[in-house]
Amino acid sequence: MEDQRRDRRKPLIYQLKVLDPKTKHQIGHLSDLSKNGCHLVIDHPIKRNDNLFIAIENVLDIEGGKTLAFSARCKWSRSDDQNDPMHTHYDAGLEFQNLPTDVKEIVQSFG
To answer: How far apart are the first and last CA of the chain?
Structure first.
């Protein structure tokens, strides 16, 4: 798969939990981040071009530690089953969509 990223991703030194903003339940985690997108590890498949509304825990305690909610579009997705039917995960590349300025600044501070 050809790498079409505009910005280089930075691996995270801590795991950022990804939540469903409505239920506040964890649906996955981020493994790396750029100013325009992220790599999501999730327990269910996502289709290419699906639009998602997700939230991440603000582990840096910036802005009072609020949860950061935003929209993203799936650019690619694949299974990461590692030949273990009990340990199926999916990797997805997400592109941020219209991040509010305050969220954009905080997301950039994670890297």
So the answer is: 24
Cβ atoms of 29 and 50 closer than 8 Å: no
Residue of 72, 74, 75 whose CA lies nearest to 99: 72
pLDDT in tens, 4-46: 555 666 666 667 889 999 998 999 998 888 888 999 999 888 9
Q: Where are the domains of the chain?
A: 12-110
Could you tell me which residues come within 8 angstroms of residue 95 by beta carbon, excluding any fewer than 6 positions away? 36, 37, 72, 73, 75
Write out the CATH class of domain 12-110. mainly beta
Q: Which SS3 state, helix, strand or coil, does residue 39 take?
A: strand
Sign of the CA dihedral with 78 first, then 35, 67, and 30 last: positive
